[in-house]
Each structure stands twice: as C-alpha cells, then as structure tokens.
Amino acid sequence: MRCPFCAHEDTQVVETRESDEGDVVRRRRRCLHCEKRFTTYERSEIQMPAVVKKDGSRVEFDPAKLRASMTLALRKRPVSLEQVEAAIERIQDKLLASGSRETPSARLGELVMRELKRIDKVAYVRFASVYRQFEDVDEFRQLIRDI
Q1: Cβ burial, residue 112 (10 Å; 0-12/13-18/19+)
Q2: Pairing label, strands 50-52, 58-59
Q3: Helix 105-119 crosses helix 121-131 at what angle (to 10 degrees)?
C-alpha cells in the first residue's frame, strides 16, 4: 500500500479490525519512510453481469430497475415487500451463479417472469403481456391456459 503522504511503497499494518457486520476490514497502517499513520478499508466487490439489450447495447445491471418493473406488475396485489426483495435476491443469485460477464435482457426477463409466476399469477400475466408484446387476444389466452 502506497503512503498517501510521501508516496513511499513500504507500509506496515499496525492494527486490523472487522466491522460489526463483517463486510469491511479496517486497517491502521504506518509508513516505514515518513512514519505517518493512515487508515485503509477493504470491501469485497461483487461484479454483476452487464445486461445486453435487444439492440446490442450493454448497460450495468440495476436492481432498482428490476424492483420498479416488478413493483409495477405487482401493483395492488397482496404481495409483501419482503417477498419482492427475496425474489430480486434470487434473481441476482442466479445471475452471479452463471459466472458470465454478460447476460441477455431476454434471460433477465425470463428470470423475472419465473419469480412473478411463483409469487403472484396475476402479476405474472401483467408482466408477461408487456414483456412478450402480445399482438392479439389468442396469445394472451394461451398464456393464461399455460398457468
């Protein structure tokens, strides 16, 4: 670790502490050149895969967008916020477990539909009707029959 005061590369760890939640490590360091002390923090970084849109553009995965679209489909439905958060967590876990750096938006849409089908059938139909862009009533009927 480079010293922020003199830019010397040799520093010594004097003290190490974990945060209460265990997700951050705080280290007190001492520069071996100028003798000044400073603090560093270590956090684990989890990289979600980028989402590849239909037009080929890539955007960063945003759980807020996922939450907004699911909340819209679940509007006025008897589903708790905890159930929505758990569904989002399962979707994120599946994306991380895939190990890929990118995921098509179609895959993300299918994961959302699977979770909505699991927690509320009406929300599933709402989301699917927009997501799959139904052209006529027969496609809509077929989706309801499949449920």
Answers
A1: buried
A2: antiparallel
A3: 160
CA angle 110, 113, 117 (to 5 degrees): 140
**Residues in the chain, total:** 147
Q: DSSP string covering 6-54, please?
A: T--S-EEEEEEEE-TTSSEEEEEEEETTT--EEEEEEE----PPEEE-T
Query: Under the phi-then-psi rule, with left for phi > 0, alpha for psi from -120 to 50, and beta for the rest, what region is 76?
Result: left
To the question of pTM greater than 0.90 for the whole model, the response is no
Q: Is the Cβ–Cβ distance between 108 and 51 less than 8 Å?
A: yes
- pLDDT over 80 (residue 132): no
For 36, list phi and psi in degrees, rounded to 5.
Answer: -80, 155
